[in-house]
């Protein structure tokens, strides 16, 4: 029987790509349950539930779709080295209705009220949307959250603004996506999670003086 086998050692939680698998003919007893895959496209994007050695046949017991693999077996998020994933709340009016999708880019606008002064400013641009949350109701409803890719330093700033301001998001034109940063290398200003030292009101005021 010609079945799908691992072209290299496969690790749990790492999504299977086209280069990870190949077809190979192996002997299969006639009475053996039909749990093999006969087409490589049937396993693309799935995640191994256990380690699978090179040359070993993939079976339905060893792999699962990311949304079916529970707990520690679910797929790793595709977060570049030096960055983190942060989930932010959204709604129809806050986040461009139901339009933001995975791999879109958004900007973040903050509105701060200090006494009688109200000011609005764009605080982040070119923010990569990694995942989109579940719609609150109905097929065309807005998702309840967006999972974005930022540095840990940016995550601290975003958290501050979530607590002390009103946030809105705009969706950037897909025509501009080719020019967006790919987060392929760590940010020199915040290379890893250890670079984040916290933020204070004074630091936010210094970084965004027009809001205060």
Write the layout of secondary structure elements.
Layout: E1 2-6, E2 21-25, E3 47-48, E4 63-64, E5 84-89, E6 105-114, E7 117-132, E8 145-150, H1 152-164, E9 166-171, H2 201-207
Antiparallel strand pairs: 1-2, 3-4, 5-8, 6-7, 6-9, 7-8
Describe the protein in words.
By secondary structure, this protein is mainly beta. It has two domains: 1-76, Alpha-Beta Complex (Type Iii Antifreeze Protein Isoform Hplc 12), CATH 3.90.1210; 84-211, no CATH class. The protein has helices at residues 152-164, 201-207; strands at 2-6, 21-25, 47-48, 63-64, 84-89, 105-114, 117-132, 145-150, 166-171. The strands form three sheets. A five-stranded antiparallel beta sheet has the order 5-8-7-6-9, covered by helices on one side. A two-stranded antiparallel sheet has the order 1-2. A two-stranded antiparallel sheet has the order 3-4.
What keyword list fits this structure?
two-stranded antiparallel sheet; single chain; elongated; five-stranded antiparallel sheet; 9% helix; 2 helices; mainly beta; 212 residues; Type Iii Antifreeze Protein Isoform Hplc 12; 2 domains
Q: Give the integer mean of the pLDDT values.
A: 89
The number of distinct β-strands equals 9
Strand order of the largest sheet: 5-8-7-6-9
**How far apart lie the N and C ends?**
70 Å
User: What's the helix-strand series?
Assistant: EEEEEEEEHEH
The helix count comes to 2
The computed structural class is mainly beta
Integer count of domains: 2
Poorly predicted tracts of residues: none
What summary fits the major beta sheet? 5 strands, antiparallel
Task: Work out the radius of gyration.
Answer: 22 Å
Share of residues in strands = 25-35%
Principal-axes geometry comes out as: elongated
Percent helix: under 10%
């Amino acid at each position: 029987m010609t079945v799908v086998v691992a072209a290299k050692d496969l690790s749990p939680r790492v999504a299977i790509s086209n280069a990870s698998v190949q077809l190979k003919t192996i002997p299969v007893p006639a009475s053996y349950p039909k749990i093999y895959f006969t087409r490589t496209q049937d396993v693309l994007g799935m995640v191994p539930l256990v380690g699978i050695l090179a040359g070993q046949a993939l079976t339905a017991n060893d792999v699962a779709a990311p949304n079916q693999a529970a707990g520690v077996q679910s797929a790793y998020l595709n977060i570049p080295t030096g960055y983190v994933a942060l989930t932010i709340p959204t709604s129809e009016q806050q986040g461009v209705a139901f339009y933001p999708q995975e791999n879109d880019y958004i900007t973040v606008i903050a509105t701060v009220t200090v006494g009688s002064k109200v000011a609005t400013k764009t605080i982040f641009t070119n923010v990569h949307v990694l995942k989109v949350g579940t719609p609150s109701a109905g097929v065309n409803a807005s998702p309840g959250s967006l999972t974005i890719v930022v540095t840990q330093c940016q995550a601290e700033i975003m958290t501050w603004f979530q607590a002390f301001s009103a946030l809105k998001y705009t969706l950037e034109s897909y025509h501009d996506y080719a020019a967006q940063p790919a987060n392929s290398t760590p940010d020199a200003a915040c290379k890893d999670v250890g670079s984040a030292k916290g933020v204070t009101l004074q630091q936010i005021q210094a970084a965004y003086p027009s809001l205060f």
